[in-house]
Amino acid sequence: MKAISLIFISLAVIATVNATCADANATAGQGGTCFCNAGYYGTSTDVSSGGSCKKCPTGATSPASTTSGTLKSSCTCIDTNAIPDITYTLCLCNDNYYGTPTSSGASGCTPCPTGSKSFAGSTTVTQCLCGDFNSVINDAKTACQCKANYYGTPTSSGPSGCTKCPTDTTSTIGTTALSSCACPDTNASLNTANPPVCQCKANFYGSPTSSGASGCTACPNGQIAPAGSSTNVCKVASTSSTYILPIVSLLFSLVMLI
């Protein structure tokens, strides 16, 4: 009896070892059941008449199946910054990354510049868009910066951190301070009013222009005027030497008379 049992066990083992799968992408496992190979997903035709083991997307892999059915989600991209596309035919860079996924070595997907985002599948940095609508990506492609004629620090969400320069003033891309908003009249600068406006610089007087020749006239040599002077209030600067020299001269004359 024991001999017969051993014979049946041996035949079962031999049958399992020699079992072949109709599905070329499956391998017989425990009990002779066919499971999808590594790099494939689905249900073997040996298990389901309508089944098949489908290849994971190019650049993705999956572990060998240990159950009769393997989910699509078992396929993961070799590039850790990538995901399979919806058709499961190729890999795409993840949201907020751009580039081309690799199947080995370093990731081919680069993070978008600080403060910007992208949709999955973006291939160039130009597809990374700043969260702050008043900002653009800098030349170094490392972060977002305020647009020309704005100043401040961009935000990644919520209200803009970039404020428009005062009326008739301009700024270069990346300006962070209000003081860097320049008046078109080169002899004028912003005052401290709220909102600030352009006024003639110290030692000038008049009304700043928004284009063409300056509307601020320089004081004559040696004369001064406070910033913001709209009329000619230029005058000679008061210095101690102005008064000391006449006094010294007077005293010298008195000594000579004595």
Describe this structure in words.
This protein is an alpha+beta fold and 258 residues long. Helices cover 14% and strands 25% of the residues. It is built from two helices and 23 strands. The strands form eleven sheets. It has a three-stranded antiparallel β-sheet, with no helix packed on it. Strands 1-2 form a two-stranded antiparallel sheet. The protein has a two-stranded antiparallel sheet with strand order 5-7. The longest helix is centred in the last third of the chain and has 18 residues, at 240-257. Mean pLDDT is 87; it is low at 1-18. It comes from Tetrahymena thermophila (strain SB210). Keywords: Signal. Residues 1-19 form the signal peptide.
Give the gist of this structure:
The chain folds into four domains: 18-76, no CATH class; 78-130, no CATH class; 144-181, no CATH class; 183-233, no CATH class. The protein contains two helices and 23 strands. It has helices at residues 2-18, 240-257; strands spanning 26-28, 34-36, 40-43, 52-55, 60-61, 69-70, 76-77, 82-84, 91-93, 97-99, 109-111, 116-117, 129-130, 135-137, 144-146, 150-152, 162-164, 188-190, 198-200, 204-206, 216-218, 223-224, 235-236.
Features:
258 residues, alpha+beta, 3-stranded antiparallel β-sheet, 23 strands, Growth_fac_rcpt_cys_sf, signal, Immobilization antigen
